Amino acid sequence: MRIVIDEDIPSELVPLFRGAGHVVQHVEEMGLRGTKNGDLLLALSGNCDVFVTGDTNRGHQQNLRKFDLAIVLIHPQRLVIDQIEPLIPLAIAALPTARRHVVTTIGVPVKSPRR
User: Fold this and answer.
1) CA–CA separation, 48 vs 43, rounded Å?
2) Cβ atoms within 10 A of the Cβ of 25, count?
3) Confidence at residue 110, expressed as pLDDT on a 0 to 100 scale
4) Which of 13, 15, 75, 83 has the most neighbouring CB atoms within 10 Å?
């Protein structure tokens, strides 16, 4: 499984995602740091299986049907290493069933924006 970790997840946590046949890269390693959301998803679409992010707006800002990948959102109370790290095993467990074109949330449920 090819996994890309977003820049809002500290790169020192990347080794925790490795194993069991996972090929894991951080967006910084790929030279995609600072790439806008839509452009980043377009660059990753078809080139990875799962995109792991901490950006709670990712699913609301883009039409995910356009991108051929699954998104796993790690959502602690605060996006800091001490709160992200305990959620990583849960995120890894969710990888095999994460559906393409959908955000799978691990941690605190994300509230939908009001319309």
Assistant:
1) 9
2) 17
3) 66
4) 75
CA-closest candidate to residue 41, choices 72, 18, 9, 64: 64
pLDDT computed for residue 113 by the predictor: 54
Is residue 19, in this structure, part of any structural domain at all? yes
> Residue 58 is which amino acid?
R
Q: How many domains does the chain have?
A: 1
Residue 8 counted as domain residue: yes
Give pTM, 2 decimals: 0.90
Note whether residue 7 is domain-resident: yes
Contact 106, 94 (CB under 8 A): yes
List, for residues 67-95, the tens digit of each pLDDT value. Answer: 999 999 999 999 899 999 999 999 999 99
CB 77 within 8 A of CB 83: yes
